[in-house]
Amino acid sequence: MSTRTADQAARIGETRGERLRRVLSSRAASVVAIVIAALWTIPTLGLFVSSLRPDEDIRTTGWWNFFADPGSVSLYNYNYVLYSDSQGGGLIINLINTVVITIPGVVVPVAFAAMAAYALSWIKFRGRNLLYVGIFALQVVPLQMALIPLLSIFSSGLHIGGVTLIPAWDLEGVNTLIQVWIAHSIFGLPLAIFLLHNFMRELPGDVMEAARIDGASHSQIFRKVVLPLVTPAIASIAIFQFLWVWNDFLVGRTFAPGEATRPLTAVLGDMAGTWGFGWTRLPAAAFIAIIVPLVVFLLLQRYFVRGLLAGSVKG
Amino acid sequence: MNISAYLDRFGLLAVGLVAFAAVLLALYGLAELASRRDRNRAVAFVFLAPAVLFLVVGLVYPAVRTVVMSFYDAKSENFVGFDNYVWAVSDPDALQILVNTALWIVIVPLVSTALGLLYAVLIDGRAGERVYKALVFLPMGISFVGASIIWKFVYQYNGAGGEQIGLLNQVVVWLGGSPVNWLNESPWNNLLLMVVLVWIEVGFATVVLSASLKGVPTEIVEAARIDGASPAEIFWNVTVPSIRSAIIVVAVTVFIATLKLFDIVRAMTQGHHGTDVLAHNMVEQAFRLFERGRGATLAVLLFLLVVPVVIYQVRNMRRQELETR
């Protein structure tokens, strides 16, 4: 069904697009479109080419010379940045940190958001609308508002009027990654609840009603009726959160500050900022960080776009 | 590399996931118990408890605390009234940051939305539309840091003689100019940093606007054409008003992303050479200079700038909902 509507849309688009395109002459339009597409592709291509060139070549000539004189192509840089013990190497450990951060950083907020969204859309209780509006409004709070106090909760606990509500966690070393999980879960929740609530609200009420009459409990309806129906929505939200967590710089850097616990993006961000010794390794290092989300993004683009349109246009 | 470093991390991951699964099972068990007794309030409580707990402890309380901290000194010990706010609007360095931020939040949403709209119109219905769209959409999957590294190589400057290895300077040389150390040239370096964010956000704008272009009813366009409207008139008087709300949504979304921007400034210039912005300097103040009061103040300013825009967007959405009814 979706392909047919897409076809129709394309056909409609064609006639209208042609008309619009007469604003500029068709040839000029082509040139502009191709220039934009090229500007959006060439920089990435350049980085990829650089990552395959030897240190000396990167230092002395531009990557475009590669096409005239390929010289030697090697994966040496990749090997160096991942495994070398020298400066700018050994990033495999940071790549692992990223993986270890990302999996709970996606699973936890999506699961909790799904439960919350179900309660907000299908369980009747007093104060439901007020609570929903409150959570909706939290989307406005930039995570910068939470950084300093949240960090101090982890390091020295939460005390109100001499009463300790949360003791200090005193996490060290690898265990600081737990702080990153929790921070990502918190910051991902408002948007995830909002989007999932939008999807769940649209589900047909008579299906729920029928399940209720058959004696199903809320947790059974949630697991067996609602979750299967909103799987595409959960997929698109999980992709959002995955891209956000994998690509994050600030949260990882703030909550797992040690050299050995930082995620890959945080290390890269600081390496790029200082541009010190070993900048010729940056293309390979950056490409390792880029390639995973890019592949996920390309494979699951359809879900991502659906989530994007649902979140931004329909509201 | 020693293997125990790997084991540490994956061990932590395994423990974390098992603990999480246990929490979920416990919650389902509680919900099941409450369900059997048909107590909606209790079931709702169980379903909402984890999310609400996280949000209250991790977002609501910290936000309130940050507002309080903005009225205290660097160590959050002495009440200083509005001193931090006065600093933010009178100190020359802080003013520079505010000016830069203002430039960012005007230029980036405007340019991203305009370019996205232009590109969406240009490729609409063209052969290979999906490929065109994918090429521009691709940077959305790349991190701000990755994009910064990509562009830092484009802007690279070789002042020591010899070949230029940055594409932009090479183009300048090919055109007969002399290379420039782009990222040190204030205030123009601000624009070059904005290019990176625009490069990322245009893909988003294109996809959303392209989808809404497909929704413009052909009958209206047809009628306008029969009435003798020129293509430009159709564009400005029919197409743009029809997708107005999508344009606003795109601009607002990009606006908010721009305001919260930390990564690009950090990875490109670390805020040097007159390129610092609010969200980046907030982190500098709070975590490097240990000026918690000032950091908190900048965070509050960030929040105050987001609020009116979001209220506007919510109103816009509500009106749109009423219209479609």
CATH topology assignment of the largest domain in chain A: MetI-like fold
CATH class of the largest domain in chain B, named Mainly Alpha
- Share of helix of chain A, binned: over 70%
| Strand composition percent of chain B | under 5%
Q: C-alpha Rg of chain B, in Å? A: 25 Å
In CATH, the homologous superfamily of the largest domain in chain B goes by the name MetI-like
Number of domains of chain B: 2
Order of helices and strands of chain A: HHHHHHHHHEEHHHHHHHH
| Largest interface chains and counts | A-B, 132 and 129 residues
Q: What is the first-to-last residue Cα distance of chain B?
A: 63 Å
- Inertia-based shape of chain B: globular
Helix content of chain B: over 70%
- CATH architectural type of the largest domain in chain A: Orthogonal Bundle
Distance between the termini of chain A: 24 Å
CATH topology of the largest domain in chain B: MetI-like fold
Count of separate structural domains of chain A: 2
CATH class of the largest domain in chain A: Mainly Alpha
What would CATH call the homologous superfamily of the largest domain in chain A?
A: MetI-like
- Give average pLDDT of chain A, whole number: 86
Q: Mind explaining what this structure looks like?
A:
The complex is a heterodimer of chains A (315) and B (325). With 315 residues, chain A is mainly alpha-helical. Chain A has two domains: 2-81, no CATH class; 92-314, MetI-like (MetI-like fold), CATH 1.10.3720.10. Chain A contains 17 helices and two strands. Chain A has helices at 2-21, 26-39, 42-51, 55-60, 65-68, 76-83, 92-122, 128-138, 144-156, 177-201, 205-213, 218-229, 231-247, 250-255, 264-274, 282-299, 301-314, and strands spanning 158-160, 163-166. Chain A has a two-stranded antiparallel ribbon with strand order 1-2. In chain A, helix 7 runs parallel beside helix 10 and helix 10 (177-201) packs antiparallel against helix 13. Chain A is globular. Mean pLDDT of chain A is 86; it is low at 1-14. Chain B has 325 residues and is an all-alpha fold. Chain B folds into two domains: 3-69; 93-324, MetI-like fold, CATH 1.10.3720.10. Helix content of chain B is 75%, strand content 0%. Classes of the chains: A mainly alpha (315), B mainly alpha (325). Chains A and B meet through helix 1, helix 2, helix 3, helix 4 and helix 7 of A and helix 1, helix 2, helix 4, helix 5 and helix 6 of B.
